[in-house]
Amino acid sequence: MKILEEQWLILISTPFYFSIIVLEILLSNYRKSDTYAVKDTLRNFMFMLLNGWLGLALRATYILVLGFFFTHSVFTWHNPVLYWICLLLAEDF
């Protein structure tokens, strides 16, 4: 449920941020301050796309690696409480 809330937050806030950025660009061009350059804006946009694709590629890699180890597991846990206790100890210590 939390993922759905985060997606809604992104969907709602993105147009708001986009409109603020466009307003800032228009005001800087109106005042002739040359704060924004098209080259810099395109570079930032490309970095944003690259970051998104990299995150997607890493998530796909995580799924593939976890799926591989799940299908080729050496042993299985029959007691979930013992599993979580061992996992907690392995992570913390």
Folded structure, characterized:
The chain is mostly helical and 93 residues long. It folds into two domains: 1-36; 51-93, no CATH class. It is built from three helices and no strands. The chain has helices at 2-30, 38-71, 80-92. The longest helix is centred in the middle third of the chain and has 34 residues, at 38-71.
Task: Supply the key terms.
82% helix, 3 helices, elongated, single chain, mainly alpha, 2 domains, 93 residues, 0% strand
In terms of topology, how is this protein built?
Layout: H1 2-30, H2 38-71, H3 80-92
The tally of domains stands at 2
> What summary fits the major beta sheet?
none
Distance between the termini: 31 Å
Question: What portion of residues is helical?
Answer: over 70%
Radius of gyration: 23 Å
Question: Given the helix and strand composition, which structural class is it?
Answer: mainly alpha
Q: Roughly what is the average pLDDT, rounded to an integer?
A: 88
Basic shape = elongated
**Strand content of the residues, in percent?**
under 5%
Q: Specify the number of helices.
A: 3
Instruction: Tell me how many strands there are.
Output: 0
In N-to-C order, the SSE pattern is HHH
Which segments are poorly predicted (pLDDT under 50) over 5 or more consecutive residues?
A: none
At a glance:
By secondary structure, the protein is an all-alpha fold. It is built from 3 helices and no strands.
